Amino acid sequence: MRRRQILAFGGSALLGTAGCLGDARSDDQPTSTVGSLEITVSSVQRGIVTYTTPDSISVVDTDRRHVLFGVNAADCDEPPEPDAFTLQFDGREFDATTEKRGHQLYRFPGSFYTAESESGHLLFDLPLTGTAADAALVWDSGEWPLPESIRRRLEVAPEFSVSFDDEPTNGSCTLTATNEGDRPQRFLAAVNQEGGTSAYRPIGVRTAVLEGGASREYDIVAPPGGTGGQTATPGGRRIVAWAGGRGSCSR
Q: What is the pLDDT of residue 3?
């Protein structure tokens, strides 16, 4: 077994045309009601997953922090417009990038907020670190200071060490991510398959929020193939990319 250790402190942003925020369900999701507006922090993460070519994905914008809010304005007499919201952070105000980036999100399972729909998500694009003491979601008729648990995460850049077992067992190779910081942060990786039944195609995203010092293993399994789709696709190579590193294994 060969293992490579990669310390993922950073990585320049890549360009892409579609993206993914990952699975927000494992995130810390504080919720509050301000007036008649219900707000939830759905995800806080470094980078997004995009199509870097028409048939492959990667983690991009790793020099930025992305914050996804859930908004429910069903009880408001006049739901605010999306452009009424700003995110206050590091002494500045940031507009939502939902209109510019929202339609690009790779396999995003939700919908994006409009006054007409009265519910949905707002996406904000922030610097990777900054002073978060004043961090708050602000709109024309209210303000919600972000909870301390979220502000602490925004103040420091995520630091993950990654070990990649690139000799597969039973068609599966293993990626282990460890949060080297002292605060919960989200790990995010994009997986592609090269060869097998197709020249190149995305497999999906591996992501979770890890507590400081915690580790998580991910089995990088070849996509199903064969009769009934129950067996792994023969041949080919799995390629995994995360902020600051990449690895691969063949079968």
A: 36
Alpha helices in the chain (DSSP H): 98-101, 148-155
Q: What tens digit of pLDDT does each residue of 60-72 get?
A: 889 999 999 999 9
Residues in the chain with pLDDT values less than 50: 1-18, 24-26, 226-231
142, 35 contact by CB (below 8 A): yes
E-strand spans in the chain? 3-8, 31-34, 37-53, 56-72, 86-89, 92-95, 119-127, 136-139, 142-145, 160-169, 172-179, 185-195, 198-210, 215-221, 224-225, 231-232, 237-242, 245-250
Region class of 192: left (phi > 0), else alpha (psi between -120 and 50), else beta: beta
Total number of domains in the chain: 2
What is the extent of the structural domain holding 176?
A: 3-7+158-250
